[in-house]
Amino acid sequence: MRSEPTASFWGTLLYILAGPLLWAVQFTLIYAGHTAACLPAVPETLAVPLVAVPTVAAALAAVAFILRQEAFARALGAPEPPRAAALHAIARIAVLLALVAVIWSGFALALVDSCLAGR
Amino acid sequence: MNRAGPDDLPNALPRPPGEEEKLKRVWATPRGWRILSAVNNTVVGVAYLGFAFLFFLLAGVVALVMRTQLAVPGNDVVGQDLYNQLFTMHGTTMMFLFAVPAMEALGVLLLPQMLAARDLPFPRLSAFAIWAYVIGGLVFFSTIFYGLAPKGGWFMYPPLTLTEYSPGDNADFWLLGIGFIEISAIAGAIEIVVGTLRTRPPGMSLTKMPIFAWAMLIFAAMIMFAFPAVILATMLLEIERAFGWPFFSAEKGGDPLLWQHLFWFFGHPEVYIIFLPAAGLVSMIVPAMARRPLIGYRLIVVALIGTGFFSFGLWVHHMFATGLPALSLAFFSAVSMAVAIPSGIQVFSWIATIAASEGRFRITTPSLFVLGFLAIFTLGGLTGVMVALVPVDLQVHDTYFVVAHFHYVLIGGMVFPLFATFYYWAPMVSRRRLSETLGRITFWLMFIGFNVAFLPMHLTGLRGMPRRVWTYPGDVGWDMLNMISTVGAFILAAGVLVFIVDLLRNFRPTAGGGGAGDPWGAGTLEWLPGDVYAARSIPLVRSREPLWDQPNLAREVEEGRHFLPNAPTGGRETLVCSPVEAKPEYVLQMPGPGWSHVLAAIFMAGFFLLLTVKLVVPAVLSGIACIIACIWWGWSLDPGPVKGDVPIGAGIVLPTYVSGPRSHAWWAMIVLVFVATSLYIAYVFSYLYLWVVSPDAWSPHGAPALPPATWPLASGALVAAGAAAMLLAGRRLPAPGRPSATAPLLLAFAALAMTGAVVLEVLGHWYSGLRPGQNAYAAATYMASVLNVQVGIAVVLLAGYAIARSLVGCLDAVRRVNFDNCAILYPYGAVQILLSLLLVHGFPRMAG
Ligand code: HEM
């Protein structure tokens, strides 16, 4: 075993969970934001920005992560490449998967009326 | 750390005489009736699995009774009321007493072996969780025999389950049973998280962990975030039933849909909590049978993580028919479909691994069950995508189509892998293997029986037969399909019966000793030769399949040439490593067999049971006895640094006592704080949800004006002062052997301050004229204090315990784990109380 600096656990955790966490934040924001926009006292049109902004922001953040992955790893204290190649692959694929989910849920905005009763 | 190359093993031969005998003595399993006090993971793990299987059989018999009743139209084998009890009991038992515990049991049984740890880090905690589960489960199940079983379905929707519509104790027994499972699931989750992250062997970095360990880690993390929602839900329902706080009563501003949100925020992840470990097991069996490494390890890890996360974004798909805004439905529909991607990744990885074995894949009983799983689970997944589409769901909601769908995913996704597991891992804990012939008969009966029973249910459902009906008319085209389903259920049961025969004939548990050896030539560490102490020495790991890549490993480990081949502290111990890269950090001293945790479980059961039947004084006495047993239990757990540092091999000398963020106790407390945080977030959600539904009930319109700001300010100041005292106490812990009263006094002040803060908050509302039964706002307001009281009690107990330890000279600046436990919970409690004050006093002022 080599004696490299010990990786930060919390940093590594954040690093490999970056994608799913992004999705979780986006999903919470669009669900809560859209629920708020459909309250009687709030204009319905607010639903569009409340859903679109977190979706676009999360998608951009995911792309940024993929482009600057090494910098993220370093900043978070995860083992840096080329160490732990599998860890980096996991983080990257997880972000890709999250990106699909982010776009999939956000895209619903283009297809469905915001506050129409669902039944 | 010294280098330890391939030929340069951590420990040299010959080993000192008597070393192995000492290990055997230290780890010996108690004999005779004393086995009840055992804590070895292989002993309690087998017992845990055995009880889970017993509940599977019991709930299976209940299912057969239901299928008999439904075989022909207009049948009267059981009446309507009993049928309601039967499906509730079947669903609840299968989900809470069989599926989740079976997976936890496998975690307890298999994880330490796969990680070559001597045991999980808190052996008595697992044993406690098991006893609590066994007692709670048996009492809960027995209610079916005296008509006290719940009848509101396994998800117990209010208003049906409120006292107006479900008088009597039946529903309370459901809440009681679930309470036990909640406690034991969370205890198990702590054990599994800390065990997986900290007790891996040196060199086994996160990405060299067996997939099952990943699956269990994610399983445990999901329990941490999902169970608190149902804990809160059951608390709210029981409080409404017992004291009339109207969380779910629409006429007082409550909302039955709040239950659905909370229940399904737990309930949907629950399905994956059951499935992920099963998928983990499959990912272990497939490579062993294909005799090659799993294809797509990284993809599978991502799939497990992704499923874990997405499963929290699906809960509303159980509520598509409740009238939510269309866009909400679309979000949840999207995630419900997206979750199929990670499941698909896993299925394709398994198929690819089998295909890449180029005909070397062995068809054995475990592989048959795995192939059966693949077929059935994939079909269940496909109907899952169908019901994720809102219009389809609206058609088939609450029909037998859904019953068919969830049995395909549950039985396919969990029962088949479990049977594969029985056949695959039995040789690890039994002197004899299970029979291949009987195994194959079991498989074919179960596979055919299952499909005969459940495939026609899709059609029964599409033809409009609703679920949860005790009988049906004969002229609507459902009779033949139902008869076929019943025949199938009995064929399936015959398969299980053959399995029981196999068990009785061949399963000979070794009570912790080594098993029948590795019949499969697998690559992972659970197949190392071992005895009651697990592996003789803890291996240095270099790859994911160490037994394949290091051909001499088994021999070296058995000769004691790897780490910690002895018991240097003279007691039970295992190696604790860093969580990411698994570098050895310290030697953890562990407790052996004992009775304190057994008594704690019994008295805890007594407390809840007596409370359910409204015997308050005996319940309180039992609760006090439980606390005393816990103190007795805890007293021996902090041995202090008396054993000094010990060598483990390769020139490495490790401490036998650590405190702070490196210690396993710290990690357990952090997990507990996560659980408490999720519970609190679920509460904040409920508060805001009730406001969205009934803003009119909120102060000042629908309830008395809030107490003047001096009340919350005083409360906040008290708790802040307490937190400061706690901080100071940490700095004023005395040096070893130099007792001082400062730290205990500060601790006492901190505990009193938190108590005072909580009391002030309650009094403020009481004097303002607000009563919790008044409306949903009042109930939600007082509920914040209920949660704060809960944390307050935990803090007072931990602080009192730390003070007691300090008075007898067992707590100082070095030996400080008991202090640290309280010091971790306190700031959490303080923040929770401050947030409650902001929410309860600030939000109505802002919104009103
Ligand atoms: C062993 C074979 C099994 C058979 C023959 C069977 C049969 C049934 C039947 C007849 C129902 C009632 C349907 C109704 O009236 O609505 C039912 C419901 C249910 N089953 Fe099973 N089942 C089996 C195994 C399982 C397993 C292994 C699980 C879970 C791991 C499970 C979970 C459930 C649940 C959650 C319900 C819904 C209960 C409710 O409506 O509240 N079942 N099953």
Automatic annotation (TrEMBL), chain A:
Keywords: Membrane, Transmembrane, Transmembrane helix. The keyword Transmembrane applies. The chain crosses the membrane at residues 12-34, 46-68, 89-112. This is Uncharacterized protein. It comes from Chelatococcus caeni.
TrEMBL record, chain B:
Keywords: Cell membrane, Copper, Electron transport, Heme, Iron, Membrane, Metal-binding, Respiratory chain, Translocase, Transmembrane, Transmembrane helix, Transport. Its EC number is 7.1.1.9. Its main location: membrane. It is found in: Cell membrane. It catalyses: 4 Fe(II)-[cytochrome c] + O2 + 8 H(+)(in) = 4 Fe(III)-[cytochrome c] + 2 H2O + 4 H(+)(out). The keyword Oxidoreductase does not apply. It is a multi-pass membrane protein. Residues 1-21 are annotated as: Disordered. One of its GO terms (molecular function) is heme binding. InterPro entries: Cyt_c_oxase-like_su1_dom, Cyt_c_oxase-like_su1_sf, Cyt_C_Oxase_1, Cyt_c_Oxase_su1_BS, Cyt_c_oxidase_su1_bac, Cyt_c_oxidase_su3-like_sf, Cyt_c_oxidase_su3_a-hlx. Pathway: Energy metabolism; oxidative phosphorylation. One of its GO terms (cellular component) is plasma membrane. Residues 21-554 form the Cytochrome oxidase subunit I profile domain. GO terms for biological process: electron transport coupled proton transport; oxidative phosphorylation; respiratory electron transport chain. Belongs to the heme-copper respiratory oxidase family. This is cytochrome-c oxidase. It comes from Chelatococcus caeni.
